[in-house]
Amino acid sequence: DYLIEQKQLDxxxxxxxxxxxDTIRLxxxxxxxxxxxxxxxxxxxxxxxxxxxxxxxxxxxxxxxGSLDEDGNPTENxxxxxxxxxxxxxxxxxxxxxxxxxxxxxxxxxxxxxxRQAVIESAMRASYSGINKFKKxxxxxxxxxxxxxxxxxxxxxxxxxxxxxxxxxxxE
Length: 172
Known about the structure:
172 residues; 4 helices
C-alpha cells in the first residue's frame, strides 16, 4: 500500500510539470507501475484469503470429527462437535473474482436438498471471515451472499441462483 501511495504521489507531481514528451512518457510509466503494483497486491490478498479459508476449514473439520480440542490442538479423545458437521463433506473452498467455489466429497450427493443447502450455506458463512480479513465485506454483501458454485471433483453439480445467492440449483 505504501509503495502504491508513493507512486501515486510521484505521478501527481509529474502531472504538475509542463507536459512534454518526456513528462508524458514518465506519467505513462508511473501509471503502468501503479496498476502492476495493485494487481500484485490483489493476487497476494487472494492467496492469503484462500490460505485462511483452508486453515479455517481444517479447524472446522477437526472439531466436527473430535480430533481437535476447543483451542485447535490435536486430541485423541475429543468429542465431535455437530455444529461443524457440515465441514465433513467439504473438500476445499476457493474464493476468486467475488465467487466461491465449494468442492465437495462424494458423500455430499447422498444428502437431500435441504441438507445440501445447509452445508453450502455453512461453507459460505465460514468463508466470509477469511475474506473479510483482507477484503472488507459490508453487512449488505454478507446479507446478499457471494455467488457460489459447487463442484464434485472438477464437475459442477450446483450453483447459487442469481436472484438469491443463498438458494441453489442442482444438476441431477
